């Protein structure tokens, strides 16, 4: 009976800790602007963070959401997920390439273009969206042609939806063209240049944005600003989302599983291998975080039970 009680207590504590990793503090609803900082590589982790940020902003009654962007690009699949989320959102989305010196390169170009209103700080740049391999190397000719045409058509569609310069945006894909903030404004890629968030809010105050065939007027005077930060889990997954680390997790996880198969009964290598592979699959977007959490909790319960039956 004591063993069962101990196992139950440990399991509840473990469950609480795992749940706490993904806990998002929901603020009281009211007039405010939500801010999401997209300052990392575009991957399934950052796509999940942006999706959660938009959902949180809508649920809390934000008047609009600002995506502060500073990224070198990343996965096209994750980019499509982000763009689909932005295009479907029920409140205005403002993309702001900031601070000075930041960039919205490659996949970041698609995200900025998809926003209802796009802005850049001075000394920032956007573009260079030609498709390449994950490591930055050129694609084979046939694959490059297909990827380029697909990305160019996708960006033209976004430009048409947001009334932006499709020709200038398409050049970022076809010719890897990049634009400074002033050039992007002149070419009709963005709507305005602002120094910081305060300057941005001052310049968009009173502007009318078309959202879902309805006009929404932005009122930013004395408006509260609430930042939607990454959760502890999102930060952890973001740290291990580097392709080199993912490859290492896959390699070590596979090796540990092989050791367990070669010498059955060790248990340790098998458990470690499963955990490493699960982390790698989550970061790659193959497994959703919630099911991995459930699996790890189930594994923990099994191990605690085995330990209580055969200590050591």
List keywords for this structure.
alpha/beta; three-stranded mixed beta sheet; 312 residues; disordered N terminus; globular; 12 helices
Structural notes for this entry:
With 312 residues, this protein is of the alpha/beta class. The protein is 54% helix and 14% strand. The protein is built from 12 helices and 11 strands. The chain has helices spanning 2-21, 44-59, 76-88, 107-114, 141-162, 166-174, 181-186, 197-204, 232-239, 243-262, 268-283, 289-309, and strands at 32-38, 64-69, 93-97, 103-105, 117-120, 125-127, 178-180, 192-193, 208-211, 214-217, 224-227. The protein has a 6-stranded parallel beta sheet with strand order 8-5-3-2-1-11, with helices on both faces. A 3-stranded mixed beta sheet has the order 4-6-7. Strands 9-10 form a two-stranded antiparallel ribbon. Strand 2, helix 3 and strand 3 form a beta-alpha-beta unit. Helix 1 (2-21) packs antiparallel against helix 12, helix 2 runs parallel beside helix 3 and helix 10 runs antiparallel to helix 11.
* Rg over CA atoms: 23 Å
Distance between the termini: 20 Å
Given the C-alpha coordinates, what overall shape results?
globular
Give unreliable regions as ranges: 1-26
Helical amount among residues, as a percent range?
Answer: 40-55%
Biggest beta sheet summary:
6 strands, parallel
Quick take:
The chain is an alpha/beta fold and 312 residues long. The chain has helices spanning 2-21, 44-59, 76-88, 107-114, 141-162, 166-174, 181-186, 197-204, 232-239, 243-262, 268-283, 289-309; strands spanning 32-38, 64-69, 93-97, 103-105, 117-120, 125-127, 178-180, 192-193, 208-211, 214-217, 224-227. The protein is built from twelve helices and eleven strands.
């Amino acid at each position: 009976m004591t063993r069962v009680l101990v196992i139950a207590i440990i399991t509840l504590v473990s469950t609480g800790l795992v749940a706490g990793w993904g806990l998002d503090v929901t603020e009281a609803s009211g007039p405010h602007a939500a801010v999401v900082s997209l300052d990392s590589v575009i991957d399934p982790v950052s796509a999940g963070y942006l999706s959660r940020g938009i959902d949180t902003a809508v649920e809390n009654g934000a008047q609009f959401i600002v995506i502060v962007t500073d990224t070198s690009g990343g996965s096209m699949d994750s980019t499509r997920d982000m763009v689909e989320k932005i295009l479907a959102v029920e409140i205005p989305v403002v993309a702001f390439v900031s601070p000075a010196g930041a960039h919205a390169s490659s996949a970041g170009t698609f995200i900025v273009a998809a926003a209802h209103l796009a802005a850049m700080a001075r000394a920032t740049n956007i573009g260079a969206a030609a498709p390449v391999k994950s490591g930055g190397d050129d694609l084979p000719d046939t694959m490059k042609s297909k990827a380029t045409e697909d990305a160019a058509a996708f960006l033209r569609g976004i430009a048409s939806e947001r009334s932006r310069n499709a020709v200038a945006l398409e050049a970022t894909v076809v010719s890897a063209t990049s634009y400074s903030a002033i050039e992007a404004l002149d070419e009709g890629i963005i709507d305005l240049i602002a120094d910081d968030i305060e300057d941005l809010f001052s310049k968009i105050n009173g502007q009318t944005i078309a959202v879902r065939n309805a006009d929404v007027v932005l009122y930013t005077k004395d408006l509260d600003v609430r930042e939607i930060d990454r959760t502890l889990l999102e930060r952890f997954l973001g740290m291990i989302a580097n392709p080199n680390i993912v490859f290492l997790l896959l390699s070590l996880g596979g090796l540990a599983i092989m050791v367990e198969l070669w010498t059955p009964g060790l248990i340790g290598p098998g458990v470690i291998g499963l955990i490493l592979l699960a982390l790698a699959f989550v970061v790659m977007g193959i497994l959703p975080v919630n099911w991995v959490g459930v699996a790890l909790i189930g594994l923990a319960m099994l191990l605690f039970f085995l330990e209580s039956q055969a200590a050591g």
